[in-house]
């Protein structure tokens, strides 16, 4: 077999398959994506860009590793993301699309759907961030295996009304370069319960939006607290969102869910972009037979009410549960990630929002 070329356009998965030490080199640069699903879709240059790194030092190190058989010493400078150097930060982050993910009640898999959507969009090489605004039960860091507390520094530009510098958070970055901000990343005690009242929830969402050193993102997904309470909705109205994605599951309480969805649409004055019915059915692994464990699907009914398409019906799936529990959701090799991303892209195209992109910080 001819030796694989080490170039910006070289596919990461193919490179690692032929030159296993490349995985160690990439990991040394913080590109932990060599083992996960994203590497199938990404070349070295895209991986470097996603992590805010220059591609040349990575290519040099890969070539050196191939020559010498070991991982060369990598300069600290080459490992530092250029996109987020705090000194270079002069103020304005742009999000092309801001999409909240909402559910009528907790436990329907809203966080998992947010994660799958983020993974799908990353695999299409969009830059993606997630605000984990479900601050009463923040589970996004767990899905992506993020444990280290976020770095917080003084904002070089903005001050509080008391004249103190505002805190500026660095988002955590997943292995495939999805940026994440979550209340769970303020502490290393993941299981510590937090009790927040409505107005605080609203203020936290706003801070997660504004006081964060986000990269320029194509998509900012907002994993909202369950329910359709006023506080988060009021914030959303001021954030120039494209529209919401509604996550439901089949159950006897469907009429309540439908009523809540109607209420939501009324309050938000923004389109529902699509409906995802999670835990919709179970496929028996031995017979392939579908069982509607939680009752018949209401996806179509909710979608009609919301005047939105059904993006997907996601089955109950032990593989997703396992990867979610182990913090390895980016390794999921399932077409559902593409289906969700494609559906969202079509829905956005069908509901173009006013031209301006919001500028903040
Ligand atoms: P929510 O954000 O709506 O509260 P989560 O996303 O945290 O819900 O999901 C609740 C639990 O159900 C989690 O343990 C999650 O891994 C699991 N889960 C969600 N969707 C599925 C699915 N389709 N198959 C199996 N387990 C799922």
Question: Can I get a quick summary?
Answer:
With 361 residues, the chain is α/β, with parallel strands linked by helices. It contains 13 helices and 13 strands.
Write the layout of secondary structure elements.
Blueprint: H1 12-18, H2 21-28, H3 44-50, H4 55-68, H5 76-79, E1 93-103, H6 110-123, E2 128-132, H7 140-144, E3 152-159, E4 165-169, E5 172-173, E6 179-182, H8 198-210, E7 217-223, H9 230-237, E8 244-248, H10 254-268, E9 272-277, E10 282-283, E11 290-291, H11 299-306, E12 310-313, H12 318-325, H13 336-350, E13 359-360
Parallel strand pairs: 1-7, 1-8, 2-6, 2-7, 8-9, 9-12
Antiparallel strand pairs: 1-13, 3-4, 5-6, 10-11
Describe the structure.
- By secondary structure, the chain is α/β, with parallel strands linked by helices.
- It is 35% helix and 17% strand.
- Strands 1, 2, 5, 6, 7, 8, 9, 12 and 13 form a nine-stranded mixed sheet that branches. A two-stranded antiparallel ribbon has the order 3-4. Strands 10-11 form a two-stranded antiparallel ribbon.
- A hairpin with a 6-residue loop joins strand 10 (282-283) and strand 11 (290-291).
- Helix 6 (110-123) crosses helix 13 (336-350) and helix 10 packs parallel to helix 11 (299-306).
- Mean pLDDT is 83; it is low at 84-92 and 356-361.
- The structure holds adenosine-5'-diphosphate.
- Adenosine-5'-diphosphate binds at residues 103, 106-112, 134, 137, 139, 226, 278-279, 314, 316-317, 320-321, 324.
- The site of adenosine-5'-diphosphate has 20 residues, from helix 6 and helix 12.
């Amino acid at each position: 077999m001819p030796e694989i070329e080490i170039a910006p356009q070289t596919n990461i998965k193919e490179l690692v398959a032929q030159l296993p030490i490349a995985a160690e080199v990439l990991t040394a640069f913080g590109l932990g994506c060599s083992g996960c699903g994203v590497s199938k879709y990404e070349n070295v240059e895209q991986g470097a860009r996603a992590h805010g790194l220059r591609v040349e030092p990575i290519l040099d190190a890969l070539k050196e590793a191939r020559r010498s058989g070991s991982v060369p010493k990598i300069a600290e400078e080459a490992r530092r993301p250029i996109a987020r150097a705090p000194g270079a930060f002069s103020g304005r982050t742009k999000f092309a699309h801001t999409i909240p993910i909402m559910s009528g009640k907790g436990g329907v898999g809203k966080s998992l759907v947010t994660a799958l959507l983020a993974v799908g969009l990353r695999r299409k090489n969009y830059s993606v961030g997630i605000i984990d605004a479900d601050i009463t039960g923040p589970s996004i860091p767990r899905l992506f295996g993020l444990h280290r507390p976020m770095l917080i520094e003084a904002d070089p530009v903005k001050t509080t009304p008391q004249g103190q510098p505002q805190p500026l958070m660095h988002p955590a970055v997943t292995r495939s370069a999805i940026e994440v901000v979550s209340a769970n990343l303020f502490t290393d005690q993941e299981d510590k319960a937090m009790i927040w009242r409505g107005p605080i929830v609203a203020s936290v969402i706003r801070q997660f939006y504004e006081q964060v050193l986000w990269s320029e993102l194509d998509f900012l997904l907002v994993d909202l607290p369950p329910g359709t309470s006023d506080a988060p909705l009021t914030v959303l109205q001021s954030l120039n969102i494209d529209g919401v994605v509604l996550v439901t599951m089949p159950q006897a309480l469907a009429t309540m869910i439908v009523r809540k969805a109607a209420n939501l649409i009324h309050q938000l004055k923004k389109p529902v972009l699509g409906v995802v019915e999670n835990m919709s059915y179970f496929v028996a692994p031995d017979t392939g037979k579908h069982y509607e464990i939680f009752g018949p699907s209401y996806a179509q009914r909710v979608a009609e009410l919301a005047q939105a398409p059904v993006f997907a019906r996601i089955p109950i799936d032990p593989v997703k549960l396992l990867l979610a529990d182990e913090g390895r959701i980016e390794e999921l090799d399932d077409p559902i990630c593409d289906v969700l991303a494609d559906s969202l892209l079509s829905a956005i195209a069908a509901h173009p929002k006013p031209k301006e992109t919001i500028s903040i910080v």
